[in-house]
Amino acid sequence: MIHLCISTLILTVVMGQKSTDMDKLLNWCLDAKLHKTAPGPENSLHKQCSPWKDRSCCTEETAHKVHNDNIYNFNYNHCRNMSKKCNEHFLQDHCFYECSPNVGPWVVSETRTWRKERFYKVPLCASDCDAWFNDCAEDFTCTDNWSRNFDWLNDTGCSSKCLTNFCPKGSECMTFRKIYGNASNFCEKVWDHAWQYTKDSEPCMRLWFNGSVGNPNDAVARHHAHLIAGASTKHLDYLLFGFLLMILWRTICVF
Ligand SMILES: *[C@@H]1O[C@H](CO)[C@@H](O)[C@H](O)[C@H]1NC(C)=O
Ligand SMILES: *[C@@H]1O[C@H](CO)[C@@H](O)[C@H](O)[C@H]1NC(C)=O
Ligand SMILES: *[C@@H]1O[C@H](CO)[C@@H](O)[C@H](O)[C@H]1NC(C)=O
Ligand SMILES: *[C@@H]1O[C@H](CO)[C@@H](O)[C@H](O)[C@H]1NC(C)=O
Ligand SMILES: *[C@@H]1O[C@H](CO)[C@@H](O)[C@H](O)[C@H]1NC(C)=O
């Protein structure tokens, strides 16, 4: 009996999402360096970020920076210059990161200098991931986990403080194909589980879509938000059930 009470309590704590509110889950902008506080329309968004312009977490200025500035001082050319076709996928991924209002169900807390929140295991459609990996397969890198494994050192030719990523000591530059082996391993590892490789037949996110006919990822977020909201009502039931059992237990067993 007491076992049951304890396990129901544990279940409630472990499953704690950042929110179980549908409206919040479906309109989430990360608490991070450049994100707006809430999604909204923009008159236009630069180039590859334009699909998000009707409902976006990024401003036009941010969309420009994604294409033209090095916002996080991240060097994609840490081995050799990245090919244009590969770089386009990383740009698209970066637009999703800054602009997508559909990550609410996958937001977790993190403490890094440039953000307090990140997304974790967002389902990425297999075909989008495959296209990304195939276009990068012959490009070069030296480590699989780009969020964590680089050495951040002062760039040469930088007079004041400006850290950038360098290949970790002892690592070797090899093709993406050698480093990652396959598309799913690549998408899941590169940004430390930001993405989860997911069959196209399941609800999954698109990096590439035609924004003028709507954002297909809205429905994916809605699907997962429903699951979370549903699960939280169940947990409430379990919690109530647990309390009832506890009261019953005390009445019967405590004397
Ligand atoms: C790499 O790109 C930089 C900047 O665009 C360019 O100056 C350099 O010549 C390129 N190097 C090679 C080997 O293509
Ligand atoms: C980089 O340079 C800045 C200022 O010159 C210095 O304070 C900092 O410690 C350096 N960081 C590293 C990792 O070398
Ligand atoms: C992809 O590579 C990972 C890591 O090497 C491996 O565990 C996984 O089974 C591979 N998946 C496929 C579909 O080959
Ligand atoms: C990336 O590195 C961090 C820190 O070492 C580790 O906790 C995490 O599991 C790694 N992620 C992947 C996808 O390997
Ligand atoms: C996007 O969809 C609109 C409306 O159906 C269409 O006119 C346009 O050509 C499409 N754009 C692309 C790039 O496919």
TrEMBL record:
Family to which this protein belongs: Belongs to the folate receptor family.
Name of the protein this chain belongs to: Folate receptor-like domain-containing protein
Keyword Signal annotated: yes
Residues of the Folate receptor-like domain: 29-205
GO molecular function: signaling receptor activity
Keyword set, alphabetical order: Disulfide bond, Signal
Lineage of producing organism: Eukaryota, Metazoa, Ecdysozoa, Arthropoda, Crustacea
GO CC annotation, single: external side of plasma membrane
Signal peptide: 1-16
Signal in keyword set: yes
InterPro entries recorded: Folate_rcpt (IPR004269), Folate_rcpt-like (IPR018143)
